[in-house]
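S2.1 Query sequence (Heterokaryon incompatibility protein-domain-containing protein)
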Amino acid sequence: MSDLSPTSSGLGASFVEPLCSAKNLANSLVVEHAPPEIRHLVCEKCWRSVFSADFFQMAWKPKPEFDYSTHRYFSYETSTWRQIQRQRRQHWIKFRRQCQWCKLLCRFIKNRYLFLEKVRQPPKNKKYHLDIKFTQDRWNTVELSLFVEEGWNGVFRIHTAEDDPAAKFFVAREVLSDVDSTMTYKLIQKRVDECANHEHCPPPQSIYFPTRVIDCTVLERPRVFVNQGIEPHDYYVTLSYVWGESQPNCTTTKNLDSYIEGIPLTNIPKTIMDAIMVTHKLGLRYLWVDSFCIMQDSEDDKAREIAQIRRIFRNAYVTIVAACSETVRNGFLHDRRPAVRELIIDEGSLPFHCPDGSIGTMRLRRRRYPPPNREPRPLCPPEPINERAWCLEERVLSPRKLIYATHTLLYECQAIHDNINGAPNFVELCDPEQIPRLPNRIFLPPPAIPGSDYLADHEMAMAWYTMLTLYTPRTLTHSRDRLIALSGVAEQFHRIWLQSRYFAGMWEHQLPGALLWKNSGGEECCSRPDGYRAPSWSWASIDGEVNVLSCGSDGILCSIIHCDVTPVRPINPFGAVKVGGSLVIDTVLQPAVWYPASERESLFTAARAQSDPSKWPDSYYNQGFIGLVHRDAVEPVSEESGCVHVSLGFVRQALNYAYGLVLISATANESCVFRRIGVFESHFRHNPIIEEWLNDRHQRIKIV
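Output structure tokens follow.
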């Protein structure tokens, strides 16, 4: 294809070895005996020129990404456009394969004329000057840059397969598409072995065993194994997945005995069958799956097993996360090649003459971008599992995760979140900040947990609030599970906060600050649930995303007198609560009028002036403006203007902001019993209403 003639910008004399050297002789033998599948990647002309061992070694001088020295280029002049086309046809006729290098160059040359030149087609007798260079980024990923006629044309990440001879020289791997191959299971075992040496990752231990598991020894006849009280010293795997639909063949009190003998394969959905397969191929025997290891027709058994969720997932050898499966029927071991094609552009494979004399392949890939002038679309949609509330605690409690994503298989532990084979993703599949993770110290054994200090306490508080932010937008089939589906995470935090009681999603030591949570849905906030889940002062009483306004410990204007919450089941103090929970606080309480339909978010206006209006500045405070309201839910009381009460809670003097609760009377008979319907914030600088309230008398009220 090309008459290779190195230019001075590409080569220094020190790079060229005598052609008669033993090394070159060995390289020539390698070239002549290269495997056909590599040899036929390029045409005869390219094989004898650009991809000959000698000239290729001259080009193979990878430099740091921002090294702009001139000698990093390898330059040459191609054959004429007509000769290139002729050579491409000859290669196709002979091998029924395209020359990957000619194909790449032709596309770039055509694009140059399409966008930069007046002539639309390349002149037949024109030759082209090409610059080639290899660079390395800070992660040691090698990239190939191609310049045609001194114009930038493309940068390609170079990958290769794990078992390719070039793997010793390229750290990047192909995005793994076959997640059920022998190589995949070797990579999984390698990751687990490496994880055992991570400072903050606990090694696999057989210190706990669930009540029931699936015995995966015989793939043709999985069966339920019941732990009779003597815990086997063996590892087990857990499965985190989306049901997506009912499972009619779950374990029940009626079929448990028959399932102990064996579960008919026709009764096992695809996702669970795939998990059985993975467990078996990992050389492990036991798998925990909720639908087959909890008796689904027994509320008592559900309560007992859900109370063990933290221990079940925390002590698993590894958790299989079926992230890509929308329903239990979908499975997760399918070929990922269609999904990978949506993420990246395959520019083909090229021969690679390794510095050690062997020959392998380098695969060129580019990220796929949305077409210009079109609305961008997500290249990889959010994984179904990230929408489900139950799956959050299953993920963050597990020490090791195999995440079967849409595009490949990932490995995650306390130390890393990476494709199983280290391949780059090309696109951000999620914001790194949104990767669910608990602090390292929360998993230390109790004697090793460090003592309390400000930084550690702040880290833990932020971790809890982050969990709420990640958890609350997720969906539940049964809204009543709002507290239950986070109970395992709460129990794990309690190992740090041993002296703090847990009140329907709120920690005693974080009150009253934790009361300042707000609905993050804005105008799209949800309706208030029909049934009772928690007291109105708890975030668990509403649906949708919430976050906590961080006010710190300064400027607190109210205090907690008493809190009373009773769990539905004493076996799970972090789960559902009974009707009747209450909170007694000492606070400044003032009447007000709420106008939900006003501009911005709901405006808050005073019901009566608490000071002489003649003393107010001439501004909109004349109208009795107090602040803005964030309503908790869509409900009749938040849709119409009406009288409410405000409980002043916090002042941030540095920012001149005050915060508090918006309340309405809970009953007609008791004047000091209220229900929360929102929070307010007020910029009180030069606002005499708030300034006067700061000095008003306190009173005790009950919020239910």
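The two ends are 81 Å apart (CA to CA). The chain has a mean pLDDT of 82.
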